[in-house]
Amino acid sequence: MGKYRKIIYNVIQETSAYRLNHLISFLCVAIPLLAIIFLWRTVYQSIPSIKGYNEAMMITYYILSTWLGDLTGVVLWWEITSDIRDGNLSNYLLRPLSYQLYFFSTRLGANIPYSLIGAGITIIFIIFLAPDFYIPSNPLTIPLFLISLLLAMLLALQFTYLFSLSAFWLEESSSVNLFVDIFIPLMAGNLLPLDLFPTFISRLFKALPFNYLLYFPIDIYLERLPFSSIFRGFLVEMVWIAFLQLLIAVVWRRGIRRYTAVGG
Amino acid sequence: MIEVRNLWKIYRTYEKEEGLIGSLKALFKRKYRDVEALKGVSFTIEEGEFVGYIGPNGAGKTTTLKILSGILYPTKGEAKVLGFIPWERKAEFLKQISFVMGQKHQLWWDLPALESFLLNKEIYEIPSHLFYANLEELSSLLAVEDLLKVPVRNLSLGERMKMELIASLLHSPRVLFLDEPTIGLDVVAQKEIRDFLKRFNKEHKTTIMLTSHYVRDIEALCERVLVLHRGEIIFEGSIKELTRRYSDDKLLTITFEERVPDEIESYGRLLSRDEGKATLRVGRDKVADVARALLESYSVKDIVVEEIPIEDVIREIFLSLGREEDGEI
Lengths: 264, 329
Fold this sequence. Notes:
The complex is a heterodimer. In chain A, about 70% of the residues lie in helices and about 0% in strands. By secondary structure, chain A is mainly α. Chain A has one domain. In chain A, a hairpin with a 2-residue loop joins strand 1 (about 50) and strand 2 (about 55). In chain A, helix 1 packs across helix 6 (about 100-130). The longest helix of chain A has about 30 residues, at about 225-260. By secondary structure, chain B is α/β, with parallel strands linked by helices. In chain B, about 35% of the residues lie in helices and about 30% in strands. In chain B, the strands form 3 sheets. Chain B has a 6-stranded mixed β-sheet with strand order 5-6-7-3-8-9, with helices on both faces. The chains are: A mainly alpha, B alpha/beta. The interface of A and B includes residues 5, 95 and 97 of A.
């Protein structure tokens, strides 16, 4: 495991050279957040509660989803797709190293400084703009939320890896990109809490694994779920994680046979 | 050490017509083309050998190395390296080989090379004392001790290549594949790397397989060469044998007392001439006759007989092969 620890360390070192970039890109997502908060504040002037969310919960939902967006977001990871298309993957195949764990380590290493900076900005944001930020009352909520967050990060890494491996088959990935960039955030609850969709869409999205990326952890944080639902959720999520791991193994094995290691 | 039997690699490439309609067509019926990169290659390499693998672009050299190092699956055929089937990529196998690609790099761009080395120490599970001993030996042989803590992006191309070599050798591989390790380097750096490889192979008995466009690399390093052409091995043996087999000519450089006579072209193929000096290309068995005839007819200061430079021989081999093949089509 020492190798993966070293990879995380190297990435943190490497990305710390781009601290300012992190700060700026986080500010870029904080500004739309401001607009959303003002919008909901206006809406709540005439209604006390929407589908069980009061004003504080709704605003907390969006603040959390902005902070967690990158931590549990799914992307088409360009480093993987270019490694596959440009033949750089060879460098990893040559060494006794799992490419999946290598990728997980680099993502983790890149996410750690980013989410710390994000946490700092979020706290400042809360103090000055959202003093009614929801604080859970049950002491068990925070540990359960953290568990759901860890599972969500794992799930996000798996999806990111799986979608990025499509580069073994696809010369260019604009269709995968569309799905990953537009539809997954929708189904994960980045745009709206899933309860706000029409009933059948909301049911469908909650049956899909993507809701565990964001909607489910925030639901736990907002204490909207009884313990029994939380544990059932964990169980289903872990079944998804196991299934995705199997799928990854199959896709990798087939992809690597197609790999042509171009260049060099 | 390395055994290859009847190795084939066929790449299937899909062809797509241009534009949206082409893309739609491709959804239903994909056109593809098979490219035969290797057509039944067989050879054996013994422990400690330094073998040159030469051939024109697209001959299949890199494909062979990629299969032998486990990066690619062959279409059919067998290969064993150190007793392992390479493409199974067992950790035990990967720990004993290395592959240096002149056009690919494994070093972390924004970090000092030392950080990449330390990562390889973990990946290959190199014990600390061995790691530091190897690092010291390699970095002093390549004279880069002072650069270990400089971010890789600030190094010159030659320095970076030396660091790549170190990164690939720290785990003391028993088999080393080198694909164009001197490509794009200046003459000095080329020579440094050449000298280093020669010494390393001697001292560590590492089995090395090298491809290079620079015939000088091959000439200086390899006692044996394999010549690959369009996916098939067409020659196996020493460089000397290669020259003898493919070139029956020698070079005659004659220095005259006076101007070069105009009839000089009747003695052989004139390659160059200036004031009092001319170079002729003459069949091996005619060298003595030509020299005697020249000495009798003119006042000659000096005659030098040389082999044709290997670079030229190899270029001619490939040219002639190309022409033959073109003629068949």
